[in-house]
Amino acid sequence: MYKYRLGSRWALLGNRFAVFATLVFAAAGCRGETSRPEVIIYLANETSPVDDERENYETIIKWLNSERSQETQTIVDSFELDQKMFPLAVDLETTSLAVEVPKQQESSGLVVLTNGMFRSGKYLLWKPGFDRAQETPLPIASSHPNLILAANPLSRADTIAAVLSFVATQFDPNENRFVLVIKSHGSGTKVMTPRLAVRATDTNRNEVLRVANNQAPAGELPLWTDRLGVSKPEFLSILGDAGRHQQMNFSLVYLEACNAMKHEFAFDQLPTNVEQLLLIRERANYVNIPYADVVQRQSQCGSFSKALLAILPNKFVVLGGHHRASCTLFSKSIPDLGYFIPLALWLLWTVRRPMVT
User: Which domain holds residue 257?
Assistant: First the structure.
């Protein structure tokens, strides 16, 4: 015979609820790891030669112009265009971030650092409570015996590691996730590199012309053609070390550099503290992301990383995550509500199910 015994039923229900609630809130706690606010770190390894590096450019360009060919002219034109466009693009993006991030209630922090800022010993910092992004002293030296690396400190693995370590002292990794944006030149062997990676004192006119005109076999290329910059293993090691030593977790790492796809990144190669890696499938332009639009969509999408991933054209590749989620208030709330849908169904089934006595 079936009948309801309310006292024992609700006691049993209470016990079941306690067990299930423990599981639900444990799962919610796991998701809390990914729902922490995001701090944006923007690092630009831009071409902005000064002093010794400018003289180095002038010498190399003079050698290339001494025996003009289609190849040498293309290189000279690219050098001159790069010195104009790269700093302009970085100025546009850093200004957009510095202006828009403080306006958004969802923003948790911003760090902006370029080669030019690094050389001057400054960076831009914004924290909740600041009315604007502030120029702040940077306690990391940019000096280096190699004039190119001194002028392009963000071409160095040790420098990037030091920057991430410093950022962890400004924003508690236990309370924040991080979005790392790196804007740089890249090559077939380096994920980050300065545009001109040879000192005139390390080569000569004939050697430069021979390399520029593709007259040097691959096995006879000078060492300087593959020396300066950050390799893929170094890049992944930097990210992993930031997790192991500073407990930094990255909801997104965006490597904006040419030739990034040639390095054959795979999701299973990423450190466990990196949720997603964003790469450009094709050649990178000087401006690829409208950062003002991204920041303004934060409230709609739920975070900076989701807003960025939601606007990507097909030339981008994302390793990891589910980046095509719709940016609506409803879709933003569904993941949190989803944890309690099974609980509601289970409670309904338990109440309606008869007990055998």
Answer: 36-49+88-193+231-325
Least confident of 62-71, 123-132, 270-279, 320-329: 320-329
Q: Residue 164: which of 195, 196, 140, 185 has the closest Cα? A: 140
Residue 340 lies in a domain: no
Tell me: pLDDT of 55 over 90. yes
CA atoms within 13 A on the CB side of 198: 19
CA 196 to mean position of chain CA atoms: 23
**Residue 342 counted as domain residue:** no
Distance, CA of 216 to CA of 237 (rounded, Å)? 33
Mean pLDDT check: name the lowest of 63-77, 89-103, 206-220. Answer: 206-220
Which secondary structure element, helix H or strand E, spans residue 82, and what is its range?
helix 70-100
Number of domains forming the structure of the chain: 1
pLDDT value, residue 343: 54
176 in a structural domain: yes
Q: Is residue 225 part of a domain?
A: no
Q: Which residues neighbour 353 within 8 Å (Cβ) at sequence distance 6 or greater?
A: none
Helix or strand (DSSP H, E) at 94: helix 70-100
Which residues sit opposite 224 in a β-bridge?
A: none
**Sign of the C-alpha dihedral computed for residues 194, 199, 200 and 203 taken in this order:** negative
Mean pLDDT, to the nearest integer, of 169-174? 98
Reading the block at residue 58, the tokens are 């002038």
Burial 28-55 (b: 16+ CB within 10 A, else e): eeeeeeeebebbbbbbbbbbbbeeebee
Look at residue 42 in the predicted model and tell me its pLDDT: 99
What tens digit of pLDDT does each residue of 279-304 get?
998 788 999 999 999 999 998 999 99
Is the pLDDT reported for residue 188 higher than 90?
no
Contact 30, 297 (CB under 8 A): no
Tokens 């904006």 correspond to: 256
